[in-house]
Specification:
By secondary structure, this protein is mainly beta. Helices cover 0% and strands 45% of the residues. The protein contains no helices and six strands. The strands form two sheets. The chain has a three-stranded antiparallel beta sheet, with no helix packed on it. The radius of gyration is 14 Å and the shape is elongated.
Amino acid sequence: MFELENTGDTVRPVLSTSFTDTSENSPERWLWEFPDGSTSDKQNPTVDQEINGTVMLTVWMS
């Protein structure tokens, strides 16, 4: 999903992204780290990110 967010004088695009764990080794815990500093411990999180160039993501599974 893609939408625009009005922040006063600037309109910034916001992208709602769903992530799906397709691991084959059956992890029991997840920690997703997103560029804005937010985290999720869900297996398949959805996050709204303001688009500003390249978006990087880190996920830890155990």
